[in-house]
Write a structure and sequence with these properties.
The complex is a heterodimer of chains A (144) and B (272). Chain A is 11% helix and 37% strand. Chain A has three helices and six strands; from the N terminus they run H-H-E-E-E-H-E-E-E. The N and C termini of chain A lie far apart (41 Å). Chain B has 272 residues and is an alpha+beta fold. Chain B is globular, with a radius of gyration of 21 Å. The chains are: A mainly beta (144), B alpha+beta (272). Chains A and B meet through helix 2 and helix 3 of A and helix 3, helix 4 and helix 6 of B.
């Protein structure tokens, strides 16, 4: 566990968890844990622009020089384009970035991305808020 | 009108801020038949005027947009905020709750299936394009790459096959487009996690373009096999000029079913 923690450049204690706001196509809550926010800094190794969700990979080096490759999930290409992302331009392999998000429930080097800070300091959203797609805060029926 | 009068009118108009024309009360575009022209690219589930960028900057789509005071874009499988609960029969309500408590892992769209109606209309992450003629209206949805054809003043065919998006026919009641939809299969969710229905589903939609920027959308869902009474919801579609409807091929790299199966097999706690 401490090894994992050493990979993390910082945990965000308080995040604005605006669950149930977006309309991605699948359940956040099944795969990701809203109680495990994560902020990671590293070097982009690959960006896979695909539907239904885009993935990118980041090499993270801990203080002992060990490198771990993390996988991040985000919006599909058309949604990213509408948010200002340009494929092969805005972010490329080799770029140093910082990304915030939430870790996968299975504990692997995998997370749901929310905001990326690019090498030039510019910030762009890469994924929807936590809770997206898992039904929001209230069921469609009244609970009796 | 004399030249002086025209100049006078133009001078008066020039004193009115341009923003006024973009707000409520602005002229509703009309087609050659005099009916409101709904043609355009629209964003569902939003109340914000302006371009896609204007309405979705800041937190991004799914956030609260530039103005935190307005309701956020709602999710495609969420209960619309502040709206009445779905009037499911008791046995059916239990089934809806089951899906909610399993965090929607049985969502048909997690298998990339078409979202159906009204889910396709009310979601905000993807745009939809309406193309209107005097005889037929076509709606193209980016989400799941689906479409609907709505012939006007027509009858449903007598050989309708059950489908995800149903069979639509429309007519005008004054300035409101009324669309009657039948012929659904039972494989879609209506509006909110687990909101299933039967093949008896009968939907009536009312589209009213109230000004240049906004269509008021009202949908009544009737399904006597699962509801105790018809379920009515309202929403809005906001004009997004300059936004293109593009390709979204969900099946390209869909990992969800395999992921969900793995999580369940490994006993990872996903329930609420």
């Amino acid at each position: 566990m401490t090894r994992w923690i050493s990979y993390l450049c910082g945990l965000i204690a308080i995040m604005s968890i605006t669950a149930d706001r977006a309309a991605a196509h699948h359940s956040f809550g099944a795969e990701y844990d809203v109680n495990k926010p994560v902020t990671i800094a590293g070097v982009v190794t690959e960006i896979d622009w695909r539907s239904p969700h885009t993935f990118f990979f980041v090499d993270v080096t801990d203080k002992d020089g060990r490198v771990a490759n993390w996988k991040f999930e985000g919006y599909p290409p058309t949604v990213l384009a509408r948010l200002g992302w340009k494929k092969d331009q805005t972010m490329k392999p080799g770029d140093r970035i910082t990304v915030t998000g939430w870790r996968a429930r299975d504990g692997s080097n995998w997370a749901h991305s929310r905001e990326i800070t690019l090498a030039d300091g510019k910030k762009l959203m890469f994924g929807p808020p936590a809770g997206t797609g898992d039904g929001g805060n209230a069921p469609a029926v009244d609970v009796r | 009108m004399t030249r002086h009068a025209v100049v006078g009118v133009l001078m008066v108009l020039s004193l009115i801020p341009a923003s006024v024309f973009a707000q409520a009360g602005s002229v509703v575009p009309r087609g050659p038949d005099g009916k409101p022209d709904l043609t355009g690219t629209w964003q569902g589930g939003s109340t914000l005027r302006g371009s896609w960028d204007d309405a979705n900057a800041g937190f991004g789509v799914g956030g609260s947009g530039k103005n935190p005071d307005v309701p956020p874009v709602i999710g495609s499988n969420e209960r619309p905020a502040g709206r009445e609960a779905a009037p499911y029969q008791e046995w059916a309500a239990k089934k809806v709750l089951e899906s909610f408590n399993k965090r929607a892992i049985d969502d048909p769209t997690s298998r990339c299936l078409p979202p159906g109606v009204p889910r396709s209309v009310m979601l905000g992450l993807f745009p939809q394009k309406i193309v209107q003629t005097t005889k037929e209206i076509v709606v193209l949805y980016e989400y799941m790459h689906t479409f609907r054809m709505i012939p006007l003043n027509a009858q449903h065919p007598d050989d309708v096959l059950a489908s995800y998006m149903g069979d639509s026919v429309g007519h005008w009641e004054g300035d409101t487009l009324v669309v009657d939809v039948i012929g659904f299969n039972d494989k879609t969710w209506l509006a909110g996690t687990g909101t299933f229905h039967s093949e008896a589903l009968h939907i009536t939609e009312r589209y009213t373009r109230v000004d240049r920027d906004q269509i008021n959308y009202e949908v009544t869902m009737d399904d006597p096999k699962v509801f105790t009474k018809p379920w009515k919801l309202t929403s809005t579609l906001m004009l997004r000029e300059g936004t293109r409807v593009q390709e979204y091929v969900c099946a390209e790299n869909n990992l969800d079913p395999a992921n969900f199966e793995k999580l369940l097999k490994e006993g990872v706690q996903i329930g609420r």
